[in-house]
Structure prediction request, 925 residues.
Amino acid sequence: MESTLSEPVIGGAVPAPAAPPGGAPAKDTDEPRRGGSWLRYIGAKAGGAAVSLVMVVLLGFFAFRILPGDPVRSLADGRQVTPEQMDILRRQYGLDQPLPAQFWRYLTDLFQGKLGDSYTYNRPVMELILDRIGPTLLLTGTAAALSVVLGLWLGQRAAWRRGSRFDKTQTGLALVFWSVPTFWLGLLMLLVFAGGLHWFPTGGMVTAGVQATGFEYAWDVARHMVLPVLTMVAVVYAQYLMVMRASLLEEMSADYLVTARAKGLREDEVRRKHAVPNALLPTVTLIFLTLGGLVGGAVTVETVFSWPGLGYLTFQALSAPDFPLLQGTFVVFSSIVIIMNFFADIVYRLLDPRLRAS
Amino acid sequence: MPRLEFKDLRVTYATQGEDGPRTLTAVDGVNLVVEPGSTLGLAGESGCGKSTLAMSVLRLLPANAKVEGSILLGGENVPDLSWGRLRTVRWTEASIVFQGAMHSLNPVRKVREQIAEALRIHAKALPYKDDAARDARVAELLELVDLSPAKGASYPHELSGGQKQRVMIAMALACDPELIIADEPTTALDVIVQAQVLNVLTALVASRGLSLIMISHDLSVLAATCERIVVMQQGKIVEDGPSADVMRTPQHPHTQALAAAFPLIGDPASRLRLPGYTAPDAPGATAQEKAGTFTAPDPADVVLEARNLSVTFAGRGGNVKAVDSVNLTCGRGEIVALVGQSGSGKTTLARTMLALQRPTSGEVLFEGKALSHNRKALKDYRRSVQFVLQDPSAALNPKHSVYEAVAEGPRLHKLPGNEREIVTAALRKAELNPPERFLAAIPQELSGGQRQRVVIAGALALDPEFLVADEPVASLDASVRAEILALLLRLRCELGLGALVITHDLGLAWNIADRVVVMFDGRIVEEGRVEDVLLNPQHEYTRKLLSVVPTNNVVEDDASVAIGAGS
Prediction:
């Protein structure tokens, strides 16, 4: 056998391409080019985000000026006011100025971190928002973390055992929850677990009249959080499940999984180390995009459960209507979405080495 | 004891047909012995069962496959192995170099990690216990395949096709297996890169005394690398013998068809001649073949011309000149082959001539008039010069019937006459007979060759003056390749329809082209009559291209002259 091997096989060995001599590996003729820099990429994406922010600020001012209704009249609603008093109110809120002047004031205030004064609360909008943003982040952050973990885990299991009973029931259940209106599910939860069973409080973030501190305070907040968080998770986890399932299904027929199996990996290693990291890529973008939306979506849940957050504040501002407050929450919600998109771009590039080339 | 032995192996797939479950036989009673240290080539067209046979060795077949008979790998019967034992056997006793390294490497992990992974899994059986030892081994493996160890830190997309395939080879060698199975290791690679990869693989196999099973549809690749060739058709072995005998005197008609699909450059028996059709002006055409009205193409009657054409793409780190001051003429009824390796600018040139890409400078002339870029003129031009794409499965809308696909052009250009008649006539010209049978079919129901005929029929329906075809047979099987080339040749001879055929396949040029144009780095480095350029190449690059075409040396006298002149 040895001798036949050393002989040139029929037709002669394929002649070597004209590679440069010497031991050093040849520079290949088909060498691909290297990718671009992080700085450029982040610069471009941050620029885009900044432009969107400016647009939001402009829109935030003008959108609420075209709304019908006189804010001063609705403020005085139900009370006897003289035209003089109305004028005083107008002057107080700067509504007697022409539109460009109002806009200029809005802009200069914005640069000093001010968003004007709320009509209904008689307090600076910025203060109100800073008060309420904590509870909202707590609520939506918890709900987001839970639904991402739950959705991704169920999604990859469902895909790996496609067509099994697990797959069918989990996908079905998730889709049912997704289709349910948020406020209805919230009311149902309240009715059953708070009203009927008395397991959880009906609303708010802390029990009224109790001055708890430390661990007791945390426990009180946690009990109040259960129902709103469950409602939010139930409504949103389906999209993570479906995207994870779909992208893993796509990866499951990929050739590199055969390579991994041929190397002798166990089936769960094939899934964990090779299939899931690839399937996560499209999912990550979606997660960041929906996180921004989740904060905005808190309006319904917070209102149903009287959670003292930004959503509830928006709801109250809407029913007044309190334009500076609406304007403020609008800018904040939109900024969160834009910032999340920016993060999505960065994380995606971190995760996918192929994007670093473009 | 043989390294590998198949005993009466049968593999069937349970599939869901239109009328209930069906079983599909992929491998049908194969008996085959691979001795230690021997090299075996497995040839056949897609669907003949050769990949199924290879995958069965490591039990990598999908769940719907049923294996009967035995596969003895180093004396152990693979179907009987426990999962634990199977995982140990995988990669340590036999490893696979997969087809298409592009997809066979995990895109989000560095290649170094992917090679080291194999070492880590089998750490028990190997002397590479810790990370340092594994890193050293990975560096050693990369050097074996002519890659610098620094390349290990690359992700797959940062490597070229040839480099990726060499990473696969390094990975296959990682655990020192006794048997390497290479499944179409060089398909989709350029001729020059293909030669490099084959060299690395065969040298390593020979120096280590490994057994090699090489799978390919290209007999000449197998002849150049293996001692013995086995030809499969429809799951059965139809020919088995030493490479020399199989190449010189193929016994089975299928082997003969496979061999004919890769013509020997310089062999008059394949010049303007294909199984099934011979051009009237082929050397040694019989009187009967010469019959009919045929006027030899006149290169002076120029239909399509590029004058001083340049295309520059703005890229990071400067501009890239994809096409650099190119002058090219295509005569009426003339087939011009534009050859070059990928990245040479040949596709950009073709796209520019089709006015799909604007030139940076220079102009394209059709029948002596410069192309204007106004919409009306472009539309007329596109009716006259039709485009045939590389992959018919991707070029056809999967939801459109054949009728829709072919009728779309005439409808768009408001061609006079009965639409149905135009479509059936076009299908008939593309040799889809009887046309009525194909009208309602959707692409999925057609074979690869039939799909490409539909694409060509779509072009013919507009009664064009000229065709531009980008790698028209690169994605097709060997025997289908010959049929499609015969069709293009017949269109040239019987309808006087010329074509600019873009290809990396010099054999194609020898088969059907009148003239050949060689492109390198955006420039045309050589052009002339096929016989002149391919048998007596002047430019160094043309010689290099010719030198790496795997040859079978059947026609000793002519071919050796041809190849000798090239190297």
Remarks:
- Chain A touches chain B through 50 residues (CB under 8 Å).
- The longest helix of chain A spans residues 214-252.
